[in-house]
Amino acid sequence: VQLVESGGGLVQPGGSLRLSCAGSGFTFENIAIGWFRQAPGKEREGVAFVTTIDGRPYIEDSVKGRFTISNDNTKNTVFLQMNSLKPEDTGVYYCAANLNPGDIVPWNLDFGSWGQGTQVTVSS
């Protein structure tokens, strides 16, 4: 199982970034996959998830209306579109997957597969 993130970088406040996470070594069609982030000195937090069987998104309240998550099962890829970025969005963003989610919502899942992380810095 491998998850590879891309798309991080430096952006000014109000700007946009699109993160991608490409998965390999597992079936993409019925999993829970999404993004956590960790800011310096803070605990890791869940940002957004999607269940790939139905494309249903789960978005954390602080980013709702600014971030959207989507999946392309034909490419084994999940995307995080981040708009109206704020300095408090700065952190390392990690892609994570649960390969057997059942009916459990992503907020209550353990994620056993992780990418290496990509840095997002929002600063003027």
Describe this protein with a few key phrases.
124 residues, mainly beta, four-stranded antiparallel sheet
Number of E strands: 11
Order of helices and strands: EEEEEEEEEEE
- Class per helix and strand makeup: mainly beta
* Percentage of residues in helical conformation: under 10%
The number of helical elements comes to 0
Q: How big a fraction of the residues is strand?
A: over 45%
The main sheet comes to: 7 strands, mixed
From the alpha-carbon coordinates, what is the Rg to the nearest angstrom? 13 Å
What low-confidence regions span 5 or more consecutive residues with pLDDT below 50? none
Termini separation comes to 37 Å
The shape is: globular
- Mean pLDDT figure: 96
General description of the model:
The chain is an all-beta fold and 124 residues long. The protein contains no helices and eleven strands. The strands form two sheets. Strands 2, 4, 5, 6, 9, 10 and 11 form a seven-stranded mixed sheet that branches. Strands 1-3-8-7 form a four-stranded antiparallel sheet, with no helix packed on it. A hairpin with a 6-residue loop joins strand 4 and strand 5. It is globular. The mean pLDDT is 96.
